[in-house]
Amino acid sequence: MAATIPSEEQVVEWMTSLSNWGRWGDDDQHGTLNLITPQKRKQAAALVQDGIPVSCARPITSEITPDVTYQMQRFMVDSGEGRDTDPPERRRVRRGAAEFIGMVFHGQTITHIDALSHYSWQGTMYNGVPASLVTSREGAQSHSIELAADGIISRGVLLDIPRLRGVDWLDPGDPVMPDDLDAAEQRFGVRVEPGDILLIRTGNYRKILERGPVSGAESMTACQVACTPWFKDRDIAMMSTDTSNDMRPSHYANIATPLHTVSLVALGLWLIDNANLEQLAEACRQRQRYAFMLNMGPLRLRHVTGSPVNPIALF
Amino acid sequence: MAATIPSEEQVVEWMTSLSNWGRWGDDDQHGTLNLITPQKRKQAAALVQDGIPVSCARPITSEITPDVTYQMQRFMVDSGEGRDTDPPERRRVRRGAAEFIGMVFHGQTITHIDALSHYSWQGTMYNGVPASLVTSREGAQSHSIELAADGIISRGVLLDIPRLRGVDWLDPGDPVMPDDLDAAEQRFGVRVEPGDILLIRTGNYRKILERGPVSGAESMTACQVACTPWFKDRDIAMMSTDTSNDMRPSHYANIATPLHTVSLVALGLWLIDNANLEQLAEACRQRQRYAFMLNMGPLRLRHVTGSPVNPIALF
Amino acid sequence: MAATIPSEEQVVEWMTSLSNWGRWGDDDQHGTLNLITPQKRKQAAALVQDGIPVSCARPITSEITPDVTYQMQRFMVDSGEGRDTDPPERRRVRRGAAEFIGMVFHGQTITHIDALSHYSWQGTMYNGVPASLVTSREGAQSHSIELAADGIISRGVLLDIPRLRGVDWLDPGDPVMPDDLDAAEQRFGVRVEPGDILLIRTGNYRKILERGPVSGAESMTACQVACTPWFKDRDIAMMSTDTSNDMRPSHYANIATPLHTVSLVALGLWLIDNANLEQLAEACRQRQRYAFMLNMGPLRLRHVTGSPVNPIALF
Amino acid sequence: MAATIPSEEQVVEWMTSLSNWGRWGDDDQHGTLNLITPQKRKQAAALVQDGIPVSCARPITSEITPDVTYQMQRFMVDSGEGRDTDPPERRRVRRGAAEFIGMVFHGQTITHIDALSHYSWQGTMYNGVPASLVTSREGAQSHSIELAADGIISRGVLLDIPRLRGVDWLDPGDPVMPDDLDAAEQRFGVRVEPGDILLIRTGNYRKILERGPVSGAESMTACQVACTPWFKDRDIAMMSTDTSNDMRPSHYANIATPLHTVSLVALGLWLIDNANLEQLAEACRQRQRYAFMLNMGPLRLRHVTGSPVNPIALF
Questions:
Q1: Which of A44, B131, C88, C104 could be A155's S-S partner, Cβ–Cβ 3.0 to 4.6 Å?
Q2: Cα separation of C264 and C125, whole Å?
Q3: CB–CB of B94/B260 below 8 Å?
Q4: What is the Cα–Cα distance from D235 to D35, expressed in whole angstroms?
Q5: What is the pLDDT of residue D1?
Q6: For C265, which DSSP code?
Q7: Helix extents (H) in B3-93
Q8: Using the beta-carbon criterion (under 8 Å), do A102 and B98 form an inter-chain contact?
Q9: What is the pLDDT of residue C1?
Q10: What is the dihedral angle through the alpha carbons of A84, A86, A87, A90, rounded to the nearest 10 degrees?
């Protein structure tokens, strides 16, 4: 396997050779979302046969587990406690139960979208925009998740690599490589096309469910950056795995997160990190069908680098 | 108009006479979401003709405006500043730009779903469950938004009341009444059916966009609680307006928020508060078509009374 | 030792027999802070001989350690990054580096004051006030930390129990008992008097520093509730240890936190949880002096059940 | 008055001529806190005659007022509601009422200390340390509030400028100038000495209490930067006013906050912003005594640019 891992020089070269900068205009901030056309959405809707929806998100909890860097917060603004004995005048002023929720959705626990403001390379984001436009005070003044305000709906395609290989999940040191993608297409009778949202299962979330979460210091599988030319070749609109989308440890001395870097900065390819592909894989297996309508409504957060999301596959 | 406003006694009576308690079993927590069947989702997908998506959500910003009770929070965990001059060793450890986001989504600014744990009546939630299960410490241990984990996808229907009446927006003292719903169906050539998600436009958000937000102490239009028998009669799965879904001030001395109370507690009817129906109304007007596929993926928040959401109508 | 542990009946009896309810008036909310007189503060200031201050607080960090229930938050609102290359117009609008800080100070990690709103017994707080005045929505509408707005300054007295016993720290199952307090007074040549702030060292924080934090599920030493009659007898104004101030596990089937309950509810005795008494113990040992001026300025938080604090002993 | 306002060139020149860089060593991060010696603390304690404490802090509330940029947060983790009817098994698991508190203490509402990491000039902090050490991710890795972990206790001196001038408060365009400081010393019979904490009253907080808060876009008085040579000359350890410590609007085209810049960066002079000097002024007036012991215990926040604080004057 190690023989096929691209060199750091190769990765750096891809920053140029795979670049979509300028492809959709000098001012473009949408990147590969440009590939989702009305026709793609109609194609997606036409795939609906059973009316059965499947979530591709993990639960969002405030538990502290080894994979948590920033604890999710849930604090009640008003609870249901004491409602049965509240005197009438108190009932008149109390409203519904409600809570504050807070989170750093980036990280390795929450299913979320990475907008193109999430990453930069040598101080520059996709299409040559300075990273300094993402400020502490004002947030993402360019390349914000707001660009996806009207939702992301397209054909979703699942490639189930552990099922292809006959294993429960990929081992940490054993990433998804381009050959896996070709073989999975062949095996599952589906072909990834322009504008598709490609979901690649590694089994990582199943491993977490069975073995428990591990810290970010431990090794983890993902798609190796070698897959990025394949993504470009197929012109996918979005890519997701059930990992945080870069191997740990990195294969490279100077690029800690090569898949994020090439995808978000060079290709302008939006990512979904930490998906839950377990129920989806089962739904595909049962139907022997690996393409479906996929619906996402990112929160319309102002000046933000992504969004927590619950992608819904509809069969 | 005042003549047709139901009495407080009538509203209290509806708590029993409109009740769906027990209808879907003694343990049911899904309420009217039970009305969204696979068949409904297929019907919804079959409505897609143009492949054009429209967001029904408002932007979520950290600005303090008069309608804000709890300020939305956005704090960068890491920014893009200084990336251009970071020395190599610093580049190796810095990851993507990322932020903390926090919000109390209930209120009158953020487009959000009310799950059935949001409300109680005399200490009891939908289907007879004690409100005390919604605790400060543990959150919504019943009737949580998690029940909608697999998304809410159905046929959406827009009834555009200001357009029906030929006004820009309804005045604060002028609520939507059942007759309006009947007249709008007639006018726009659509009929609300079981399992539909009913979106009722009052023009309130257009007013906010043009005149600016107002404080929660000022009067506001909404659907009058008189509409709830109509909702029950048509068996809608969900109801939304471009208001916070109860008139201010209340018509009733002892029931501050009657529409929430009858809908969430008696009917088990899920609500969407503070929708943005402006682009949707225009899309419907252009097409002379008021039914469409509507997609929502509520965040899979554990033990929470609702979720911020970006509902996407797909034409 | 077990022979001297009071029974649950005894603890319940103390809720009445040790009560200070009504002692300082029917409307009193200050409890034992009433014992700090101007004369006490003058006595405290008169103890200053060296001008050397010592902090009795632990650092407040955002790290997730096993003893953390709610992670402390620190998010920069603006950083110092990129300041060197900001163009002049950007320099004119950027202000200082600043951050959001957030915390649940109650718990077992942060040095904090418990105001009397922190605890209730059978629905009632100190001096007979209903616990229901501490609401989710409005906070502590009685017995708030605001009562200590003008600071808490008095004579502080340290009783160093591990030094008395010749051990590094007390074992989890080995609590501080009243006899220890008497013996420590004798040994260290100090007598606890009315209005004093009593600091009792168990070595628990030293153990944490040397062995690392442990989860709240593990056992922990503290003052046994048997010490509360001693506190009442000496009429201390405030009590602190280097623990979270109740043994784990509790000796009682139905009272999880007896020291908090008897102290805060019956005596009206304010507590400091999770102090750092390591530098203080060394300062006392060096000087062979166990009484000193102790200064606290609780934050003037509106409707809040306590405050993080950095108590400063001045020798 | 305008004639005496120093030029921008003069202010820039002070960045060098008033500099304390190197004065306490090349690695010093304490700045003017070095001037508080044990002798100063003994002098401070010796001033205590009455044993009467006075808070110099404003209440911290979650209200949204025109001067709020970031709303303070208070969310209950557990309330007192329902405690009276909790069944025994629930009583055994519920603990005390507790809350999350969160705030951006910098700004114009909360009484707080500015540590030297709060400000930089052309990318550099006090004593030549790069501002880039204050990072979004890690916080203030130098010049943190932790340097004041052992508290700040010294002689406090109040100069009451509106009382000197016979007005209720200074007008927004009418700053405190060095002549005011000399005149106030003369009038109130006190002389500011090395290591003192100088509190300068402008009446700004009284104006807020009487007229209500105003937005940060409106003009506000403060000490003019012309006072900084006076601060250097007297070698004060800390300076505070009842303002946010820089005039609005700035007198300078290119320096928005000159007092912060010269004080924090050149002098290494720690500041207290937004003090409440109303009760203190009254206490001084009654006693005809303008020097007192002043006690502060900044929170021991790791890697943070300051701290909310409740400074306690003890007479």
A1: A44
A2: 8
A3: no
A4: 7
A5: 47
A6: I
A7: 8-17, 38-45, 88-93
A8: no
A9: 47
A10: -140
Q: Using a CB–CB cutoff of 8 Å, tell me whether D89 touches chain C.
A: no
Q: What is the phi-psi region of residue D77: left when phi exceeds 0, alpha when psi lies from -120 to 50, beta otherwise? A: alpha
* Closest residue on chain C to A135 (Cα): C78
Give C233-251 pLDDT, tens digit per residue: 999 999 999 999 999 999 9
CA distance D72 to D66: 13
What's the whole-number mean pLDDT along residues B94-123? 97
Give tens-digit pLDDT for C200-213: 999 999 999 999 99
How many other C-beta atoms lie within 10 A of the C-beta of residue A22?
10
Q: Could you tell me which residues are beta bridge partners of residue D149?
A: none
Dihedrals phi, psi of C219, to nearest 5 degrees: -70, 155
Say how many CB pairs under 8 Å bridge C and D. 321
Helix (H, G, I), strand (E, B) or coil at A233: helix
Q: How far is C36 from chain B (nearest CA, A)?
A: 35
Q: Is C98 on the interface with B (CB under 8 A)?
A: no
List, in sequence order, every residue forming a beta bridge with C310; answer none if it has no partner: none
CA-only gyration radius of chain B, Å: 20
The pLDDT tens digits for C130-185 are 999 999 999 999 999 999 999 999 999 999 999 999 999 999 999 999 999 999 99
DSSP 8-state symbol, D227: G
* Residues 6+ away with beta carbon under 8 Å from D138: D303
Cα three-residue angle B24-B118-B135, rounded to 5 degrees: 105
Q: Output the CA angle A193-A56-A114, nearest 5 degrees.
A: 70
Residue that has been written with the tokens 């070269």 in this structure: A13
Shortest distance, CA B85 to any CA of chain C (angstroms): 8
Please give the structure tokens belonging to residue C35: 């014992």
pLDDT digits (tens, 9 = 90+) for B201-235: 999 999 999 999 999 999 999 999 999 999 999 99
Question: pTM score, two decimals?
Answer: 0.97
Answer whether C82 sits within 8 Å of B77, measured CB to CB: no
Burial of A133 (0-12, 13-18, 19+ CB in 10 A): buried
Residue B224 CB neighbours (<10 A) = 22
Give every residue of chain C whose pLDDT is below 50, as ranges: 1-2
Cα–Cα dist D203/D175, whole Å: 11
ipTM of the complex: 0.97
The full DSSP string for D132-191 is GGEETTTEESSS-GGGGTT-EEEEEEEEEHHHHHTSSS--TT--B-HHHHHHHHHHHT--
D257 touches chain C (CB under 8 A): yes
D119 contacts D266 by C-beta, under 8 angstroms: no
First to last CA, chain B: 36
Q: Is the dihedral of CA B276, B279, B299, B79 positive or negative?
A: negative
Whether the CB of B137 is below 8 Å from some CB of chain D: the reply is yes
Please give the torsion angle defined by the CA atoms of residues A15, A20, A22 and A25, in that order, rounded to the nearest 10 degrees. Answer: -150
Q: Which residues in chain B are closer than 8 Å to A133, comparing Cβ atoms?
A: 80
Sign of CA dihedral A86, A90, A91, A97: negative
Cis before C249 (ω within 30) = yes
From its phi and psi, is residue B251 left (phi > 0), alpha (psi between -120 and 50) or beta? alpha
**Nearest C-alpha neighbor of C56 from the set C192, C158, C169, C175:** C158
Beta strands D270-273 and D238-241: pairing type? parallel
pLDDT at B3 over 90: no
pLDDT score, position B92:
86
**Residue D73 with chain B: CB contacts under 8 Å:** 70
Q: Which residues contact A11 (CB under 8 A, 6 or more apart)?
A: A225, A252, A255, A258, A261, A262
